[in-house]
Amino acid sequence: MFNAAVHAYLRAAAGEGAARCGPFVMRIDEHDDAPPFNYAVPDDGAAPGDAEVAALVEAFRERERVPRLEYVPQAAPLVEGALLAAGFRAEGRFPLLVCRPGGVTDVPADPAIGLGLVSAGPDLWEVARVMNAAFDAPEATEHDVARFRRLLDRGGLVAAAVETATGEVVGAGQIGAPCEGVAEVAGIAVRASHRRRGIAAALTAFLTRAGGGTGVSTAFLTPADDAAARVYARVGYRKTGEALHISLGRPA
Prior knowledge:
The protein is α+β, with helices and mostly antiparallel strands. The chain has two domains: about 1-95 and about 245, Gcn5-related N-acetyltransferase (GNAT) (Aminopeptidase, 3-Layer(aba) Sandwich), CATH 3.40.630.30; about 100-215, Gcn5-related N-acetyltransferase (GNAT) (Aminopeptidase). Helices cover about 35% and strands about 25% of the residues. It is built from seven helices and eleven strands. The chain has helices at about 1-15, 50-60, 80-85, 120-135, 140-155, 200-210, 225-235; strands spanning about 20, 25, 40, 70, 90-100, 115, 155-165, 170-175, 180-190, 220, 240-245. The strands form two sheets. The protein has an eight-stranded mixed sheet with strand order 4-11-5-10-9-8-7-6, with helices on both faces. Strands 1-2-3 form a three-stranded antiparallel sheet. Strand 1 and strand 2 (about 25) form a beta hairpin. Helix 6 (about 200-210) crosses helix 7 (about 225-235). The longest helix has 14 residues, at about 120-135. It is globular and about 60 Å long. The relative contact order is 0.19.
């Protein structure tokens, strides 16, 4: 049941620019070809044939994007085999962790760091700079800030961790607008100079609790590695399944 709710959220998060291709919903960012902003999600229980997979590949190629999917394989167990047969290869399998806002565990907070929700333009620029630096992305642009504005307009939240002595934004994160009570915590980022001070855990706990006020009954996230998973486990997140990221490389 929860896997279907995650899929419903991912399809909703694709936004107004989402495109349908057979049993898939595509999220395409016209301004940014980074993988996290370009992927497809299959319908629950989808069983795509060769022609439907080929059409999906062509739809990505037409948009000059790498054909790729991010989804919960338990919700569409027949999709992976069809993709593998077409030459797709798994980028990674990531634990799907969940936590209810009321189940957040208190973690020690760095007294020199303040946490808060942000929505003003200058604050969003600083958040974008922190996230892009943390994830080795190019310098922040107006498009990154516009992406945050769209998230806020849909009912999501953006948070910043600020060093109180200097006013510098040293960490950031976001939670999407709830769909059927489910939302994703994402983009948890901390400047290299401020890591190992509990800021990532504090941001995750803060956003998860704040999401409860917007209608989030269950938050989820997919950590990139075991170290990140341990951070989220301290906050109260528990594994309920896995997410699959799978793609087809560019043709030679």
